[in-house]
Amino acid sequence: MRIDVHTHAQPPEYLEALLASGRYETVRDPSGNLVIREKGSRFLTITEEMHDTAKRVEDMDATGIDLQIISVTTPQVYFLHDKAAVDLARTCNDYLADIVRDYPTRFRALASVPLTADSDAAVAEFERCLDDLGMVGAIVGANIDGRPIDDPAFAPFYETLNARQSTMLIHPMVPAGIEVMNQYALAPLVGFMMDTTLAMSRLIFSGFFDRYPNIRVIAGHLGAAAPYIAGRLDIGYRNYPDCQEIERPPSDYLKRMFLDTVSFHVPALHCAIETVGADRILFGSDYPHVIGDITGATAVIEQSVPADALSGILGDSAVALFGIGA
Predict the structure, then answer these.
(1) Measuring CA to CA, which residue among 125, 134, 63 is closest to residue 302?
(2) Could you say which of 56, 179, 211, 242 has the lowest number of CB atoms within 10 Å?
(3) 3-state DSSP call for residue 280?
(4) What residues are annotated to the active site?
(5) pTM of this prediction?
(6) What phi and psi, each to the nearest 5 degrees, are found at residue 263?
């Protein structure tokens, strides 16, 4: 099987809420797609496939993708708070669950969790997604409306994830400092990568993996810069007292994460495989973002991965991780 673990879909109501929030600016790109900006920097482009499941299935068939794991993209539901965030999360989760119900052999879904609401509401919605909607995990922002991913306020949610032995995909959100990224589309190209790298580093040094050993973590975009700076994180562990409140070196914790292949760069894929092992690499395309690429992502894997690791990366490891039947 070929399973794409990093793809996005959203209900029309999500875009309506995003625009109605008054927080964001919009423009049109040369292709007519709606571009969402914050503080002058673009971070999201809306494509028709985000709302068109039939077209999505056509593209999957054309590119040989058997199944997609779908989730709502940046900025998640974090631009709203309290009950408004819960209501939007429910709308998004019901929408994704309907897609899975209509196409049970082609899709699974990750829950949007309203972490900007109170912890009881966030946990309740996540458990509803697992128990009533049959979702296979959650998507969690690398930051939650500016709050770090390891903020103690999120502990009840992580405790539930751990108790349920569930999976979370770390996905970049609007990064800190976005106001200096308005030229050259630097927010998605560079800022997102730094957001994920920071989140992974904070989880490691905060002892997250020691406290929650049963959470299966996927880091999007090939773990961003984390595999490349693994040695630097280990040096920090050896030399800085505030980096030593964990049981093992950071590179050991990196090996406990899964990384998706949204990078499209052969040397980066080689670095990730050498850092965490081929059995921790999952196929991902970032479809249907304008900078996602199913064909390119597949080609990079097929051209550069050893034959004995190919089937695992393209789908077998995801089958085991998400408990996907034949």
Answers:
(1) 63
(2) 242
(3) helix
(4) 286
(5) 0.96
(6) -145, -45
Q: Please tell me whether residue 258 adopts helix, strand or coil conformation.
A: strand
Nearest to 254 by CA among 232, 231, 230, 274: 230
Residues of the chain with pLDDT under 50: none
Model confidence pLDDT, tens digit, residues 244-303:
999 999 999 999 999 999 998 999 999 999 999 999 999 999 999 998 888 888 888 988
Separation CA 309–CA 155 (nearest Å): 35
How far is the first Cα of the chain from the last one, in angstroms, to the nearest whole number? 9
Bridge partners (DSSP) of residue 69 are 108
Measured distance CA(192)–CA(224) in Å, rounded: 8
CA distance 224 to 285: 14
Please state, in angstroms and rounded to a whole number, the distance separating the CA atoms of residues 287 and 33.
Answer: 15
Element (H, E) at 148: strand 147-148
Q: Which fold has domain 3-13+49-322?
A: TIM Barrel (3.20.20)
Contacts of 120 (CB under 8 A, 6+ apart): 156
Distance of alpha carbon 255 from alpha carbon 261, whole angstroms: 15
- Comparing CA positions, the residue from 8, 33, 166 lying closest to residue 92 is 8
